[in-house]
Amino acid sequence: MTVPPGRRERKKAATRQKIAEAALRLFLERGYDAVGIRDVAAEADVAVTTLFSHFAAKEALVFEQDQNFEHRLTEAVTDRAPHEPLIPALRREILALVRHCTAEGAAPIWDMIDASPALRAYEESMRLRHAESLAAAIADDLGLPRTATAARAIARFAVDAFSLAREAPDPDAAVDEIFQMIEAAWEVSTGPSRRT
């Protein structure tokens, strides 16, 4: 049974959301580079120290869902139904994330990210971290060493599938195409004894 968050946690989450929304609004209105941390704090009506207690860096303000994204990826592995194959579970979660990030209104945000070297670099480091977390979840789930090449490769492919599909003219078709290749690679790397 999941315990609902307490008052303090709800208040922290609301403050975090308020800061992220203020930052995104300013970034889209003025441009990412033209907005400083103090501008965001003032817009959100919080102290700069409060802002930094929720976000470690300016780039993190754009990727407010970073931890949730990583958590959802690992849960696709750890919380899947008994005997549900790994790759279809990952495909379903990546497709849901792609649909969320390509929904109406998301294009200006991605245009801003693509135009900023700092945001692109932050996104790349975020993807690598997500892939390592996903690889650890896959390895643990299958009883493999955490450094297992197959788990790390599939994790990177899955995380990169998100980026490739997000940029494709038909994101759903791109996810299908990419995951056909991931499924084939997984079958080759694991052999008949571990196709879960």
Descriptive account of the structure:
This protein is mostly helical and 196 residues long. The protein is built from 10 helices and no strands. The protein has helices at residues 7-30, 37-44, 48-54, 58-62, 66-78, 86-101, 107-115, 117-142, 149-167, 171-190. Helix 5 (66-78) runs antiparallel to helix 6 (86-101). The protein is globular and about 55 Å long. 25% of the residues are buried. The mean pLDDT is 91.
Number of helices: 10
> Quaternary state, please?
single chain
| Beta-strand content bin | under 5%
Q: Radius of gyration, rounded?
A: 19 Å
* Topology order in helix (H) and strand (E) letters: HHHHHHHHHH
Helix vs. strand class: mainly alpha
Span between termini: 27 Å
Mean pLDDT: 91
Tertiary shape: globular
Give the tags:
0% strand, mainly alpha, 196 residues
Sequence-ordered SSE layout with sheet pairings:
Elements: H1 7-30, H2 37-44, H3 48-54, H4 58-62, H5 66-78, H6 86-101, H7 107-115, H8 117-142, H9 149-167, H10 171-190
Quick recap of the structure?
With 196 residues, the protein is mainly α.
